[in-house]
Every structure is written in C-alpha cells, then in structure tokens.
Amino acid sequence: MKTYELALIPGDGIGGDVTDAAMAVVEAAASRHGFAVSSRRFDWSCAHYLETGAMMPEDGIETLRGFDAILLGAVGWPETVPDSVSLHGLLLPIRKAFDQYANIRPHRLLPGVEGPLKVGEFDILCIRENTEGEYSGAGGRVHLGTANEVAVETAIFTRTGVERILRFAFEQARTRRGHVTSVTKSNAQKHSMVFWDEMTRLVAQDYPDVTVAPMHIDAMAARMVMAPESLDVVVASNLFGDILTDLGAAIQGGLGFAASANICPDRSGPSMFEPVHGSAPDIAGRGIANPIAAIWSAAMMLDHLGEAAAAAAILAATEAATASGIGTRPGRNSTEEITTAILAALEDRA
Ligand code: GGG
C-alpha cells in the first residue's frame, strides 16, 4: 500500500485546530481509498521563535525536503512577534526554497453558503505568482529613526518567473473554461507591469485555444464584486494575487472557505497546502474556527499526490455538509461539529 509522508506545520493560533481537522479527514479518506499517510508534526511557530530566536531550525528546509507534501495551518502572532518576522521566517522561505511558484486559490460558493453578493454562481481560479515580485525581500532601510530615514522595497520580476506563472495559468485555463485574465497595473508601473503585459501577449501565442484579457488591479477588484461570474482563471503577481484572493475569500463567504496550494510544478521539492486565512488570534483556542479551508486545501494536496478520487470524495463530503447547513455561517457550528459532519458524509459515500 502506498504511504505518503506528510510534514505537518500547524503553526499559530487556530492553525492547530484546522490542521487536526484536515488530518482526520485525510486519514479517513486514505483508509477508504487504499493508501496510507504518515505524518510528522513540526512545532515551528511564533512560540518556537520566542524560545529559539527562529521560526524554524537552521536545517528546517532540508528536513522538509524529504516529505511528499507539507500541510500548514496558520502563521503569525503579532502580539509577540512582528508579522514581517514570522512570514519571512517560515512561509516565504518554504515557498522559495522548494520553488513553489504557483499559488492556486479557488473561489466559488459551496452549496448552502451565502456570500455577501447578490450574484449567481461563480467559479474563479486565482493563480498567484509565489516566489518573487513584491515579496522578493529585496531592499533595505537607512538612517533609521532620523528625519532622513529611507525604506526601499524592490519588486523583482524575472523573465523566467513571469513566463512560467503565465504558462501555468494558461495550462489551467485549458482544463477549465478557456479564459485567462492577466492582472497588472501597467499604466502606473511602467517597467515591471508593462513587461508582464508583454509576456502575457507572448505566452498567449502558444495557446490559441485560450482567450486572454489584460486588466488593471483596481478594475479587477471592482469586477470581482460586480461580475465574478465573468471570470475563469485570474493570474497576478505575488502582492496583487495575495490581495485579490482575500477579496475572493470574502465573496465566497469568508476566509474559512478559502483554500490554497503552493505548487512546485516540476516536483523537484514538496508542495505545500494551507488555508488562506491566518492564525485568527481573536478566536484562537475557542474551538470555533471553520476547518473547511484547511480540509479543502488537504483535498488539493491529495489531488496533487495523485489521489484524485480521495480528493473528490473529500470535496463532495464537504459540499454535502455545507448543503445541510453545517459550517455555512461563522460561529454556527464548532470546528468539531463541522469536522464530524464531513467525516460522516465521507462515510456515507463509501
Ligand atoms: N495559512 C497561512 C497563513 O497563516 N497565512 C497568513 C499570511 O499572511 N499569508 C501571507 C501570504 O500568503 O503570502
């Protein structure tokens, strides 16, 4: 029997609750679909930082390299560790080290979930560039604390980086409704974003079966609210994708439903799967975090590992739970109630 080795990083706050829920569902799906999972838990988090001075050990990346996939909960505890330290100490280094350049985030309403918009169905797949752009970490500060203080943050767009994320988006569009919207701000950012637009036109030549439209980020934000049903695949830079996918989460009913996959397409390293949401300090420890985003992310993980039937079963079980009203409103059900309902629906399908 095939056994997948999973690295589990629950992280901070509600991360532990939602990864426990996701693992319970993964294990149940594994036993029904003829494979096994073996997971090793890493307590890399803000608490770890306070104890050791680092979000993960020096050999953390090398330790993770041996796993088939990484399931991550949430990172951040701003009361004790600045968010810029926790993000650049764990999540961003993992994405970069394993060249997880494609961040995939699906946005659609699950059955029974009422979003805030008065629109019909929509099904958007956001593809966020995940290793460079505005999150490259290039820059610095000088003259700290003086009137002459300067802060520089350089966004880096390489031809390799932009071309590969665009190709990834076009490939995704081929498996869906065949349309890509490429998001920039090329009227204002006349170097990097004009370059991105040019690369979009170049890559599009290899995909005559896919239609493509460029769109500015500001117009895109409005369109996701006014006409989300008009969108199929949306591709954007690291920062723009990060922002748009929180908007995507909002229109799909909230961050509790927003799943994501950090994919290393050539599989030279493990991919990482995580809910879009953060550690939610306001509800941490109360047992009311919605685990659906983490469970959906775990389904994406199984799909990536080649267990498509198990992934589809988890998604169907989640939809069955929400269709019956479970987990559809914040605070309506506990984490445990939602997980139990999904496990029961999974059992019914067996
Ligand atoms: N679920 C992972 C998490 O904690 N995300 C919080 C966050 O701020 N992420 C930033 C990013 O996705 O780049």
Task: Please give a handful of descriptors for the protein shown.
alpha/beta; 11 helices; 2 domains; two-stranded antiparallel ribbon; 12 strands; globular; binds glycylglycylglycine; Isopropylmalate Dehydrogenase; 350 residues; ten-stranded mixed sheet
Low-pLDDT stretches are: none
- Radius of gyration using CA atoms only: 20 Å
What is the topology, as strand order, of the major beta sheet? 2-1-3-12-11-4-5-10-8-9
Strand content: 15-25%
Largest sheet: 10 strands, mixed
- What is the CATH level 1 assignment of the largest domain? Alpha Beta
Order of helices and strands: EHEHHEHEEEEHEHEHEHEEHHH
Total beta strands: 12
Bound molecules: glycylglycylglycine
- CATH H-level name of the largest domain... which superfamily? Isopropylmalate Dehydrogenase
What is the domain total for the residues?
A: 2
Secondary structural class: alpha/beta
Mean pLDDT: 97
Overview of this structure, please?
There is one protein chain. The model has no long low-confidence stretch (mean pLDDT 97). 41% of the residues lie in helices and 22% in strands. The radius of gyration is 20 Å and the shape is globular. The chain is built from eleven helices and twelve strands. The protein has two domains: 1-100 and 261-350, Isopropylmalate Dehydrogenase (3-Layer(aba) Sandwich); 116-251, Isopropylmalate Dehydrogenase. Helix 7 (217-226) packs parallel to helix 8 (238-251), helix 9 runs antiparallel to helix 10 and helix 10 (308-323) crosses helix 11 (335-349). It has a ten-stranded mixed sheet, with helices on both faces. With 350 residues, the protein is an alpha/beta fold. The longest helix is centred in the first third of the chain and has 19 residues, at 15-33. Bound molecules: glycylglycylglycine. Glycylglycylglycine is lined by residues 72, 74-76, 87, 91, 242, 274-275, 277-279.
